[in-house]
Design goal:
Elements: H1 4-31, E1 36-39, E2 47-51, H2 61-75, E3 80-84, H3 92-98, E4 113-116, E5 123-126, E6 131-134, H4 137-149, E7 155-159, H5 171-178, E8 184-189, H6 191-199, H7 209-214, E9 216-219, H8 231-234, E10 240-245, H9 257-269, E11 277-284, E12 289-294, E13 297-303, H10 307-315, E14 319-321, H11 332-338, E15 342-346, H12 353-357, E16 363-366, H13 370-382
Parallel strand pairs: 1-5, 2-3, 2-6, 3-4, 6-7, 7-8, 8-9, 10-11, 10-14, 11-13, 14-15, 15-16
Antiparallel strand pairs: 12-13
Length: 386
């Protein structure tokens, strides 16, 4: 009799699982659904930048890169169309107002054409000479099908991460990995990411390094400008403040929220934070909250900030903690370092300590373990008065 309830719970889980799988199936089908192209002999050729959505709640570094890429193309005389493929609250007037807070993007909405194609039953006017740029793995599926339908050779792939690493090892990861085998020209966010693809013979580097070098390029992402900072701005501040890049959402699992919290808690228990310290987290898209760390110390989690407010947050902190369990270095540690913070971040594959400290001597790169992150925090605290 005592085992009856566990058996019922197991049965219930089995019954619920197919419905969850069906929901995931529908999401995947919608995400990679092809565009219906209306080929016109009179249409002016366009560069079509495929993006998931526009929602200023989610405008992190990756989206700022996409928007600036489109803006630069338009400013250089190209006929640019941004195509939104996922569901969103389509409101260009609101976006125009919100983007006034983002340096360089004030005229983004008016500089190009916008098209919303979540409903794939509606056709999209194109010419045979249209170019497609993918900015995510699922838009790569869409771009590949579009150029194939037009009889063109390849699309352009803006690669800001090795997409398969952003998911558990299941269908999403496999579909993401597949896209690197599609014919494309690759634009990598940072040379570190390009080097990872080269070392592991992924994508354009699958045939050879020479082919990959020919069919790819890298760029350095713009970071949030914090203005001029001198010694007088950061010396002898009390209390000292730690800023943690806090991403507890499932889609941001590579930022290792749990490891950072465990390492912080371990450091506090070990008495590493001597003197008066305050702890803040930033980056979540959820509401403000508090997280208990250890020994009665808590961290205040701040919601996602507008760029101007984020700039002031960066300027006001002394120590940064930002993790990323992928080859991309992430922009946040670099922004923290630019604001004068000592920053603890983690190594991964070719993202070595040497590679990271060559970006800034303010970066303390450690192995992605609880103990090593805690040791990195101890080193940062010991050097905070330097």
């Amino acid at each position: 009799m005592q085992s009856a309830k566990p058996r019922e719970e197991t049965k219930k889980e089995v019954i619920e699982s197919p419905s969850q799988s069906l929901a995931s199936l529908q999401v995947i089908q919608q995400k990679i659904a092809p565009l219906i192209l209306d080929v016109s002999s009179t249409a002016q050729p366009r560069i079509n930048l495929l993006i998931p959505t526009i929602d200023l709640k989610y405008v992190f570094g990756g989206y700022i890169t996409k928007f600036n890429f489109a803006r630069h193309l338009a400013e250089n005389g190209y006929n640019v169309r941004v195509i939104i493929v996922d569901h969103c609250d389509y409101n260009p007037n609101l976006w125009r107002h919100q983007l006034q807070a983002y340096q360089g993007l004030e005229t983004f909405i008016d500089a190009l054409e916008l098209e919303y194609v979540f409903d794939r039953s509606e056709s999209l006017e194109v010419s045979r000479q249209d170019v497609f740029i993918a900015t995510t793995w699922w838009t790569a599926h869409i771009a590949h099908k579009a150029v194939t339908d037009l009889g063109n050779e390849r699309f352009i792939y803006l690669i800001q991460e090795y997409g398969a690493f952003t998911f558990p090892m299941r269908t999403f990861a496999s579909l993401a990995d597949q896209t690197y085998g599609f014919p494309h020209y690759a634009i990598f966010s940072t040379e570190l990411l390009r080097d990872y693809f080269s070392r592991n013979a992924i994508g354009v580097f699958a045939r050879s390094r020479d082919v990959g070098d020919r069919d790819s390029i890298s760029f350095q992402n713009a970071i949030t400008s914090v203005g001029r900072l001198g010694v007088e701005d950061i010396a002898n501040r009390t209390p000292k403040k730690l800023l943690f890049y806090s991403r507890p959402e499932a889609h941001a699992a590579r930022n290792m929220f749990e490891m950072a919290i465990l390492a912080l808690s371990q450091s506090i228990k070990a008495g590493q934070f001597n003197g008066e310290w305050e702890f803040y987290g930033i980056g979540t898209v959820e509401a403000s909250s508090n997280i208990s760390l250890a020994d009665g110390v808590s961290m205040q989690i701040l919601p996602r900030q507008r760029q101007d407010a984020y700039r002031e947050v960066l300027r006001a902190h002394d120590l940064g903690l930002s993790l990323m369990y992928t080859p991309h270095p992430s922009l946040v540690p670099i922004e923290m370092a630019a604001a004068g913070m000592l920053v603890v971040t983690n190594t991964y594959a070719n993202k070595t300590k040497q590679a990271l400290t060559s970006i800034s001597s303010n970066i303390i790169a450690v192995r992605p373990t609880i103990d090593d992150v805690s040791l990195g925090l101890r080193e940062a605290v010991a050097s905070i008065q330097d």
